[in-house]
Amino acid sequence: MANIFSVSSDRSRGFWVAVCLLLTAGIGVVDYVSGYEIFFSVFYLAGVGLAAWHVGRLFGLVVSVLSVAVWVGGDLAAGARFSSPFIPAWNAVIVLTFYAIFVWLVERLHSLQLDLAHRVEVRTAELVREIAERERLEKELLHISEREQRRIGHDLHDNFCQHLTSTAMAGQVLREKLEARSAAEAVDAGKLIGLVEEGIAMARELARGLSPVELEAEGLMSALQELAAGISKWSKVNCVFECDTPVLMYDANAAIQLYRIAQEAVSNAIRHGKAKNIVIGLDENEGRIVLNVEDDGVGVPDDWQARQGLGTRIMSHRAAMIGGIFSMEPNLTGGTLVQCSVAGKNKS
């Protein structure tokens, strides 16, 4: 690879050497044709500058000497006469000095440009590494967060709910004993049992919210079905889940993020969109799994992209974490359509 770059660099230098020499020769011809009375030495700076920039300081000085020689020789050939040989020599030294300063300035500017380009390249590489590291940390934090939520959900379901169930059973025994004695407190014991059973139901719902998606491939479909059923049960919104053909999701993390996106989209539709009907759709199209959340609410304002809320940014971020494509746009029939698609992965 190094040899290839070296050959390419040599070819480039050879090209610019030829260009500079031909340019100097061409300017010399024009200088000769125009006569010695027209001062033409400034035009030689084109070849001198290209030589210093593309080839180097040494070649820039060579072209400077060559330009002065062509300039003086052309004037003498065109009929210029001087009272003393010192005059053309003095003029040549002055112009050559000016050319040398110009070569130094051009070479210095080129060095600064190369140094700036190198700094930009190094900084760009550092930024790329920093962005990649930040994305890795964000994904890791997201995984840790979801893992802790699943753990807390399982603890609620397996430990706390069982404890409440045992409490309800103990209360049931107490009520039966009170009823056997015809005690008036049996009614209060029954109310206590009812409250404990409500606590069990609430704890199970909370556990399901913390750990909604099972690790099986069918887990996302089941979770979205339960989400739609729960919304319809606990709110005045009609929420349905549509999935014409089974959609298997083998990536557990992607499944969880899709569920969270659907959860946030439904929440936004109810709180901000004032929707009465919500459809959660899951489909697989050309190797991509597509989640749609469609509502009949008030829709999104025209300038929603300029002032996205926290929920929208979170949904977009979750989609980016799993390599998904997120969009939110006004629905053709009114309301809002939230969509997220990710690449489907086969079972490994």
Question: Which properties best describe this structure?
Answer:
8 helices, Heat Shock Protein 90, alpha+beta, 5-stranded mixed beta sheet, 67% helix, rod-shaped, single chain, disordered N terminus
List the helices and strands and how they pair.
Elements (H helix, E strand, L loop, with lengths): L1 H33 L10 H10 L2 H21 L8 H95 L4 H26 L8 H16 L3 E5 L9 H20 L5 E9 L2 E8 L14 H12 L3 E6 L5 E8 L5
Parallel strand pairs: 1-2
Antiparallel strand pairs: 2-3, 3-5, 4-5
Written description of the protein model:
The protein is α+β, with helices and mostly antiparallel strands. The chain has three domains: 2-129, no CATH class; 140-209; 216-343, Heat Shock Protein 90. The protein contains eight helices and five strands, in the order H-H-H-H-H-H-E-H-E-E-H-E-E. It has a five-stranded mixed β-sheet with strand order 1-2-3-5-4, covered by helices on one side. Helix 7 links the parallel strand 1 and strand 2 (277-285). Helix 2 (45-54) packs across helix 4 and helix 6 packs parallel to helix 7. The longest helix is centred in the middle third of the chain and has 95 residues, at 86-180. The two termini are 37 Å apart. The model is unreliable at 1-8 (pLDDT under 50).
